[in-house]
Structures are given as structure tokens and as C-alpha cells.
Automatic annotation (TrEMBL):
SUPFAM superfamilies: PLC-like phosphodiesterases (SSF51695). Keywords: Glycerol metabolism, Hydrolase, Signal. Residues 732-742 have a biased composition (Polar residues). It catalyses: a sn-glycero-3-phosphodiester + H2O = an alcohol + sn-glycerol 3-phosphate + H(+). This is glycerophosphodiester phosphodiesterase. PROSITE patterns: GP_PDE (PS51704). The keyword Metal-binding does not apply. It comes from Citrullus colocynthis (colocynth). Residues 1-26 form the signal peptide. It is an enzyme of class 3 (hydrolase).
């Protein structure tokens, strides 16, 4: 049987990764001879990765591609998980639910009029039950995506329903796990799960069998091969185990009893790290050590990188996994996951990393408004946390107050990043077409004293997906002046530089009489940045005129030109132009890997062309929230960063979550002779090749080519002499000769990034 019908030649999915061979040798060296000392699992070995229905986070649960892909991108001892259901004629199939409705096209193929209503553990349930059909009747039913927030673009592949024997014979998994969610139900319908399981475990090697039903496990305990381990799957604490009539909480109260018929337990992850109502991790329970004391293995379930994680993990799935097996106190024996690539890299590349491990990759880690993924942008908290998170270049977007004080704030419009719209200052709101088409309350209309009194407000760029950032700290922190920022940075021994971002300089000079360039010069020189070499100074601007002005003044600063639109290419003459006033260029992620409906469509030559003239290329903005990443990156920020670094050779990442990028640079998989697949860059465009024509997104026009006139700008206008003299000591206020300002209105950055279906709001939880 081919793994799917339409494109059997693609079964192996070799296209997806440039390195497709399993590098088990590299792994042996990675997990190391003395790894036993490291892991606090029951066996002392590394924890297992159990792939639920294969790589079900991306492909339809339990389909051949999902299983095959999980084997390809996971640790070499990955375990494939199959939820077994029985057909009317007693054939076991791998399917996530005992109804065909959700994860297959059965309603169309078989007709919904063949639905039944049955009691499932006492609950009336309607649907197309597998137990109503003979196996042969399901031959034309295909597996499709059953979770509405995940992409349905692979549904045209006619993935066939597989039996456990198919999975083992076709994909030769290193480990295999059968989950029997319902035994009582099938017994009531006169098919025997026990017979099926006992017979199948004589024909293939089954490493684990789990069930939430104690009676089932006890009934097979004496009959399964000794190499097969039985695991009690624990449901909610107040759910009743139907064969003993005890709640799972009370069953867990006697681990000795569980040990009489099982060698381990599988528990939802919150049994180990409970989560508060507001989404924060609470102190760990003693369950892992209790289980280990009772000589029971303990596996944790419910790892979904595409659901909101606890805020403690900053939307970084690798951090979450590490908290379950590299926390210094205990380690679970395995994790049940829909995204097996993430625990694989967590185990092999990141666990037990030395704090002082050396960097293994070049990208400069540049913050985006400090650690703005966790704290209000550009506050003292965002900055001090970025430093402790390991940022290398700390950024300050400079705004200037009415009284001429330069300070750091992510936007010139105070509404974007403070609670000012709920304050009496609302009467200072106005519309300035040169800056934005929307009304705003602008930094240059308030004094520094007034701005200091404002309450910061955390950025929530993904709020329309109901993904919010660190709510307990949403209004914490203080804004700081540029001189204070420079002092803070100078004091941090781990930084390699600061990035000062300048926008709207022409408008501020011409219309507000404020010279932001002079304020920056003055602050840098006063803070002693002119005479030192410890900290690099990067001046970034989307305006070439600003960079030219700096170039006249000081040659030791690195000048960074920000291309603030998505581009598909750049003319060679334009690169030469840019080279005349800049040392590096910041471009958007989509200018490297263009996307179509969240699938990578390919890659551009922009990075190569810029680097050919020795311009460094920084890329913005790397966020951890999974909705900000293409499907190709498997809802894992580390996979995205790695693909840009190894796949596109970029020189720096600009990120709201510097911790993730800083950790990425130290990962030990980068030093292995053969890079394991889970640390190989994804091949842009390859995932799209697995989409059948009927599901392909419409082709989109390529992004524009950056040309000379996009870059050309008149010099900065002179500073209008209407405002009071800047309170900050700055150089001479005189500026370049007269000329018209750059009249291009700049619309808010980052417009139109995402088109993910809003169905994510009504996310369908997994069918159990
Ligand atoms: C474990 O490995 C480290 C280096 O990775 C080495 O320094 C140490 O001696 C080893 N320990 C044992 C017990 O082999
Ligand atoms: C179900 O509906 C189809 C047409 O939609 C019909 O051909 C078939 O006979 C119906 N089957 C039953 C059992 O009602
Ligand atoms: C499946 O489809 C084939 C081809 O269309 C058809 O011959 C066969 O009868 C179908 N099987 C079932 C069970 O409907
Ligand atoms: C199962 O078999 C019993 C006895 O043979 C019969 O009474 C019962 O109706 C059957 N149940 C189902 C769901 O087929
Ligand atoms: C299970 O326990 C409940 C209350 O404790 C009782 O009402 C019910 O009859 C019991 N069921 C069985 C099958 O023992
Ligand atoms: C726990 O289970 C063991 C084994 O079944 C039994 O001997 C013991 O009495 C139970 N302990 C309690 C507190 O119920
Ligand atoms: C999770 O974050 C909250 C808020 O920062 C903190 O109070 C709590 O201690 C953290 N939980 C753990 C287990 O570190
Ligand atoms: C705004 O409101 C404050 C009082 O809330 C008042 O003192 C101030 O004059 C008003 N400013 C403008 C421009 O209307
Ligand atoms: C610099 O660091 C020292 C010690 O870490 C601290 O006492 C001092 O307050 C810091 N200064 C500034 C300006 O942050
Ligand atoms: C920095 O160097 C300039 C001359 O290059 C000198 O005038 C100034 O005093 C120096 N500042 C410091 C803080 O050393
Ligand atoms: C542009 O520059 C690249 C590398 O610098 C070179 O390979 C390419 O041929 C040039 N293209 C044109 C049209 O000159
Ligand atoms: C599964 O399908 C049924 C309809 O057959 C629907 O009511 C239910 O919500 C679906 N469950 C999930 C988890 O999508």
C-alpha cells in the first residue's frame, strides 16, 4: 500500500530537508557517553519523544506522511503513537477518535445518514462510528485535517487509513505505541480490543500500550510480551475511571496499586506543572518523583505548540519542554507531542547547555524594543531583561519630547505603547499626514515630565488571535531617556553594541523645530561613546538622509539602512547606492523568504546581493508567537531562526524575544559533524509541493524590486527655529543646506503580515 494515493513518489518527503539522511552517528556523540549522569529520568537515559499520530501538528493525524515525517525530523529513538479503533469486523486502525467524522472525509464518502447515536462512557454521542463499518468499506475514506486552526491544505492527498501493522511495516519506527482509549465501548459492540491487541503484538513489536481503562490493562497484563510496557493514561482528576469507579485523582493516590498492572503513567502536563487561571506556571507537584519512587515511568501529554503556552514560556515551545526534562530537579520519561521536532531539538541540542557555552552561529542578536515580547516595549524592564536574556545589541528607537529630551519609545505615537488614550491628554490627539493616516498623540507634543507620568502598555501584535503577552506585567516599567539608556548599556558587560533607531527626522526638524540627529549626537558623545571601542554604535534609519548626515559627522558608527517594505529583489545599482551611505541593511523576513498564505514560496537573492557588496544583513522581526511563523517552521521559533541563519546566511536577527535567539546560538547541534534534521534549515517552497493543485493558494504577485528612487532622499531640512532650545546638550543646531523634506508619508510598520484564519479563535480541542 502506498502511503498516499495521488503522489506516491513523494512519500519519502525527501524534498523538505536538504539533509534527509538520519544522522544517528551524530546523535550518539551528542547524547554522549556520560549522558546517564545528566538525565533525571527513571532509566537515566534521555526522555522519549512520542509523536501523537505522527507529526500531527502539521499533517492530518495518523496519515502516512505524518508518521514518515515524524521519523525523519525527530530523535533517532522516536516513538510513533497510534490511537487504535476497531471496525465492525474487528480490524484495528489508527485514528484519533472512535468516530470518523472529524479527521476523515467519511461524511462525504459514506453519507452522514449512516451516523449512529451511542453511549460512550455514559455520554450520548452521535457520529459515524468505526464500529459500524467493515474495514473494506473504509477503503475510499481519506484522512484529513480535523483541527480547524491547522492548515487543511494537505487534504487533497487522499491519505488512506492505516492499520498499526501498516505503520510499522512502512515506516519502521524505532519505537511504537498503541493507545487504547476505549475498550469497554468496543466490548459493548461485540468486537474485542483485547484479541486485536494480543494478536497484533505477536506480529509486530509494540513497545508501549496505554489506556485510561484499568480493567483493560489488567486483562492483558499477563499476556503481552515482556518487552511491551503498559501505561495507565490518566484523564482529568475528577473524571471517573470506568472500570474501577474511582476518580483518576484517587487512583493516583495509590501508585503501588498502579504498579501492579502497569509500568508507567501518562498524565496531562498540568499534573506536573500546574497552571494558574491567569496562565502562569505554579510550583511543581511531586508527581514525577513520587512516580519514580514507585518505579513507575511518567510521561507527560498535551504538548501543542500551536495553542497558547503558559506565559512563563514566552511562547517558546523549546523552553516548555526543557522545563519538563531539564529543570535540575526531575525529568519526565517522555513527552507526547503533536510537534516532535521541538522536543527532539530540546533534548539533543539544548538540554543541559552550559550557561557559558560558546556561540556556534554568527547572527547578531538585536533586540526589538528590548525584550518587548515579555515586557512593555522600551521600558527599563524590557531593557534589563533583554540584557539578562543574552541580547547582544540593545535597541533604542529615539523619540523626542516637546522640550527636546531624546528618549526611547517604540513609536512616535504615544497611543501605541502607553495608556494615554485613557488620560486627559486625549485632547492633544491630532492627525499628521506626514506621519500616519490615523490620529495620534505624539511624543513631541508632551514634555518629558508628562511622558514620565504615562503608564506603559505592553505591545500585543497578535491580539486578534487572542494571543497576549505577559499580562501580569502589561503596565509595568518606566520609560527612560536616551542618556539613561546609554548609561545602562555601557554598564552591561555582556552587550556588544547599541542600536539607535531614528525616524521622522525631517518632519521633526521642519515642522517641530526639533533636531533628533543632533540630540543623538550629543547624547552619544556626552555618554562617552565617541571615545570607546567596547560597544559598537549602530545608527538605523529608513531615511538615507539621516544616515548620510551621520556619515558626515562620525565614521566609527555602523550605519544601518532599514528597508521598511517587503521587497522581492534589489537592483545592483541600488545596492551600490546603499553602500555609499550604509554598512548594513535591515530587511523584513518576507524579503528573504516570500510567503503565500503562511507557506514559504521560495527565497529571494536579496541577502546574497547585499552581502556581495559586504553589507551585513539584519532581518526583522522574529517573534515567538506561532501565528507569526510560516507553517514550514512547525510553530517553533527556533526552527524559524535556524532556517534564516543556516538557510539564508543572515548576519543578524531583530527579535522581541532575545532569549530564544541567544539560546539558539549556543546550541550544541550546530557543532556536530552531521547536523541532525531537527537542526537543519527547512527548504523554502518544499512544503507547498505537498499541496495538491485543488488546494494550492492562488499565486501572488512578487514583492516590488527595491530601486534607486526608493532609496534616494533629499538631505535633511534645517531645524525650524520655533521651539525652545533642546534641554539636552547637543552639538550645533545648524543642519545641512535647505531642501524639501522627504514628503513620503510613512504608514505604520508591519501592516498586513498575517492572514491566518480567524477560526483559530474557536480552536477545536483534540477529540478525546
Ligand atoms: C562527561 O563529559 C565531560 C565533557 O563533556 C567530561 O569533562 C567529564 O569528565 C565526563 N564525565 C564522565 C563521568 O565521564
Ligand atoms: C443515504 O443517503 C444516500 C444519498 O444521499 C442514499 O443513496 C442512501 O440510500 C442513504 N442510505 C440510508 C441507509 O439511508
Ligand atoms: C472505492 O472506489 C473504487 C473506485 O471508485 C470502487 O470501485 C470501489 O467500489 C469503492 N469501494 C467502496 C467500498 O465503496
Ligand atoms: C452483541 O452480542 C450480543 C449477544 O450475542 C447481542 O445481544 C447484542 O445485541 C450485540 N450487540 C451489538 C451492539 O451488536
Ligand atoms: C460508582 O460510584 C457511584 C457513586 O460513588 C455509584 O453511584 C455508582 O453506582 C457506582 N457504579 C458502579 C458501576 O459501581
Ligand atoms: C494500594 O494498593 C496496594 C496494592 O493493590 C494495596 O495493597 C494497598 O492497600 C493500597 N493502599 C491504599 C492506601 O489503598
Ligand atoms: C511564572 O511566572 C510568574 C510571573 O512572572 C512567576 O511569579 C512564577 O514564579 C513563574 N513560575 C515558575 C514556576 O517559575
Ligand atoms: C486639555 O485638557 C486639559 C484639562 O484636562 C486642559 O487644561 C487643556 O487646556 C486642554 N488642552 C487643549 C489643547 O484643549
Ligand atoms: C551599573 O552596575 C552597577 C553594578 O552592577 C550598579 O550598581 C549601578 O547602579 C549600575 N549603573 C547604572 C547606571 O545602571
Ligand atoms: C573624547 O575624545 C575627545 C577628542 O577626541 C576629547 O575631547 C574628549 O574629552 C574625550 N572624552 C572622554 C570622555 O574621554
Ligand atoms: C548583480 O550583482 C551580482 C553579484 O554582485 C552579480 O552576480 C549579477 O550578475 C549582477 N547582476 C547584474 C544584472 O548586473
Ligand atoms: C467532531 O465532529 C462532530 C460532528 O460530527 C462535532 O460536533 C464535534 O464538535 C467535532 N469535534 C471536534 C473536536 O472537532
Amino acid at each position: 500500500m502506498s502511503c498516499w494515493k495521488s503522489f506516491p513518489a513523494m512519500c519519502s518527503l525527501l524534498l523538505l530537508f536538504p539533509l534527509f539522511l538520519h544522522s544517528s552517528l551524530a546523535l550518539v556523540s551528542a547524547q554522549g557517553s556520560n549522558s546517564t549522569a545528566l538525565w533525571q529520568t527513571l532509566s537515566g537515559n534521555a526522555p522519549f519523544v512520542v509523536a501523537r499520530g505522527g507529526f500531527s501538528g502539521l499533517f492530518p493525524d495518523s496519515c502516512g506522511v505524518a508518521y514518515n515525517f515524524a521519523v525523519m525530523v525527530s530523535v533517532p529513538d522516536v516513538i510513533l503513537w497510534c490511537d487504535v479503533q476497531l471496525t465492525k469486523d474487528g480490524v484495528g486502525i489508527c485514528l484519533p477518535d472512535l468516530r470518523l467524522d472529524n479527521a476523515t472525509d467519511a461524511p462525504t464518502i459514506l453519507g452522514t445518514n449512516r451516523s449512529s447515536v451511542y453511549l460512550v462512557n455514559g455520554v450520548r454521542t452521535k457520529g459515524l462510528f468505526t464500529v459500524d463499518f467493515n474495514f473494506k468499506e473504509l477503503e475510499n475514506v481519506s484522512l484529513i485535517q480535523g483541527i480547524y486552526s491547522r492548515t487543511n491544505k494537505f487534504d487533497g492527498n487522499e491519505f488512506v487509513i492505516l492499520t498499526p501493522q501498516d505503520v510499522v511495516n512502512q515506516f519502521k519506527p524505532p519505537g511504537f505505541w498503541l493507545n487504547i482509549q476505549h475498550d469497554v465501548f468496543f466490548t459493548q459492540h461485540n468486537v474485542s480490543m483485547r484479541n486485536f491487541v494480543l494478536s497484533v503484538s505477536r506480529s509486530i513489536i509494540v513497545n508501549y500500550i496505554s489506556s485510561p481503562e484499568v480493567g483493560f490493562l489488567r486483562s492483558i497484563a499477563a499476556r503481552v510480551p515482556r518487552t511491551t510496557k503498559l501505561i495507565l493514561r490518566v484523564l482529568g482528576p475528577t473524571d471517573t475511571e470506568i472500570t474501577t469507579n474511582q476518580t483518576y485523582a484517587s487512583l493516583l493516590g495509590n501508585l503501588t496499586f498502579i504498579k501492579t498492572f502497569a509500568s508507567g503513567i501518562l498524565v496531562p502536563k498540568t499534573y506536573i506543572w500546574p497552571i494558574s487561571n491567569d496562565g502562569y506556571i505554579q510550583p511543581q507537584t511531586s508527581l514525577v518523583s513520587d512516580a519514580h519512587k514507585a518505579q513507575l515511568e511518567i510521561f507527560a501529554s498535551d504538548f501543542f505548540s500551536d495553542l497558547p503556552l503558559s506565559y512563563n514560556y514566552s511562547y517558546d515551545p523549546v523552553t516548555e519542554y526543557l522545563s519538563y526534562f531539564d529543570n535540575g530537579k526531575f525529568s519526565v520519561d517522555g513527552v507526547l507531542t503533536d510537534f516532535p521536532i521541538s522536543p527532539s531539538s530540546a533534548i539533543d541540542c539544548f538540554a543541559h547547555l552550559d550557561k557559558n557555552a560558546k556561540s556556534q552561529a554568527k547572527p547578531l542578536v538585536i533586540s526589538n524594543f528590548g525584550a518587548s515580547g515579555d515586557f512593555p516595549a522600551c521600558t527599563d524592564l524590557a531593557y534589563s531583561n533583554a540584557i539578562s536574556d543574552g541580547v547582544e545589541v540593545l535597541d533604542c528607537p529615539v523619540q523626542i519630547t516637546k522640550d527636546g529630551i531624546p528618549f526611547c519609545m517604540s513609536s512616535i505615537n504615544l497611543i501605541d505603547t502607553t495608556t494615554i488614550s485613557q488620560s486627559p491628554f486625549i485632547n492633544r490627539s491630532k492627525k499628521i499626514p506626514e506621519i500616519s493616516s490615523n490620529e495620534g498623540i505624539f511624543a513631541f507634543d508632551l514634555t518629558w515630565e508628562e511622558i514620565q507620568g504615562l503608564t506603559p502598555s505592553i505591545l500585543n501584535p497578535y491580539s486578534k488571535f487572542t494571543l497576549f503577552r505577559n499580562p501580569r506585567f502589561r503596565n509595568s516599567g518606566k520609560f527612560i531617556t536616551l542618556p539613561d539608556f546609554l548609561a545602562l548599556a555601557k554598564n552591561a558587560s555582556t552587550l556588544s553594541g547599541v542600536l539607535i533607531h531614528i525616524e521622522h527626522a525631517a518632519y521633526l526638524a521642519k515642522d517641530q523645530g526639533l533636531s533628533v540627529t543632533d540630540a543623538v549626537f550629543g547624547s552619544l558623545s556626552k555618554a562617552g561613546y565617541d571615545n570607546q571601542t567596547a560597544l559598537k554604535v549602530l545608527i538605523q534609519s529608513p531615511d538615507s538622509a539621516v544616515l548620510k548626515r551621520f556619515k558626515q559627522e562620525n565614521n566609527s558608527y555602523e550605519l544601518v539602512y532599514q528597508v521598511d517594505m517587503s521587497i522581492g529583489d534589489v537592483l545592483n545599482t541600488t545596492v551600490v547606492d546603499i553602500k555609499s551611505f550604509a554598512n548594513s541593511v535591515t530587511i523584513s523576513k518576507s524579503s528573504v523568504f516570500p510567503e503565500n498564505q503562511l507557506f514559504l514560496a521560495g527565497s529571494t537573492d536579496v541577502v546574497k546581493k547585499l552581502q556581495a557588496l559586504k553589507l551585513s544583513v539584519y532581518v526583522e522581526t522574529f517573534d515567538n508567537e506561532f501565528v507569526s511563523q510560516a507553517w514550514d517552521f512547525f510553530s517553533d521559533a527556533t526552527v524559524e531562526i535556524n532556517s534564516y541563519v543556516l538557510g539564508a546566511n543572515i548576519d543578524g536577527v531583530i527579535t522581541s524575544f532575545p532569549k530564544t535567539s541567544a539560546r539558539y546560538k549556543k546550541n550544541r547541534c550546530l557543532t556536530m559533524k552531521e547536523t541532525p534534521n531537527y537542526m537543519s534549515p527547512v527548504q523554502p517552497g518544499s512544503l507547498l509541493q505537498l499541496v495538491t493543485p485543488d488546494y494550492l493558494p492562488p499565486k501572488t504577485a512578487p514583492s516590488p524590486v527595491l530601486d534607486d528612487k526608493d532609496v534616494a532622499e533629499p538631505p535633511l531640512p534645517p531645524v525650524l527655529a520655533k521651539a525652545p532650545a533642546p534641554a539636552v546638550d547637543s552639538g550645533p543646531t545648524a543642519s545641512s543646506p535647505t531642501s524639501k523634506p522627504n514628503g513620503q508619508p510613512k504608514l505604520g510598520a508591519g501592516a498586513g503580515i498575517l492572514f491566518l484564519n480567524l477560526a483559530i479563535l474557536s480552536i477545536a480541542l483534540l477529540p478525546f
